[in-house]
Design a protein that fits this description.
This protein is an alpha+beta fold. Pfam families: OsmC.
Amino acid sequence: MPRPFVLTTAATTYSWAWAFTSSEILARDLNMENIYSAQGSNVPQGKAEIRILDAEIEFDGTQGMGTSIPGPAHLLASSLAACLLKNVERFHHRLPFEYTKATAHVELERQDAPPKIILARFLLEIETDENPQRCALLHKNVRKYGTITNTLSACCTIEGTLRAVRTNGTTEDFHA
């Protein structure tokens, strides 16, 4: 099991990191498909970044909420959006379900004391002419089989709508 430790710089900036023994890394490598990892860094004044696979994502590491780059809660919202979209593609193949485009809009509501996310809302717009029963089935599966949707639903309420956008311009909403 990884153990946290504190790093102290000359400016007394504190950072949390995880220390792994070589046997823990080896054990982890045996089942990499279920391991997700990221590495992050922050310096005074909040210049922060996360490194995930080959991507670097700058984020707001300041004390408050920034207005130009995402903070941790924005990244959590983006994880939910990505999960929804990835599951649309997954069920496009499994059901199959025909669509030409999917767009996810996500909002998270935060409580101040204690600080935590208490509500996640999403609107998943799908350009499709699939029948209403198939759209409802897709909505159910996207919510039920997503790693992030299942994780968030264990700690907060998730409200979501799938909106089918038809080629004739009409829309139909599906709620779960």
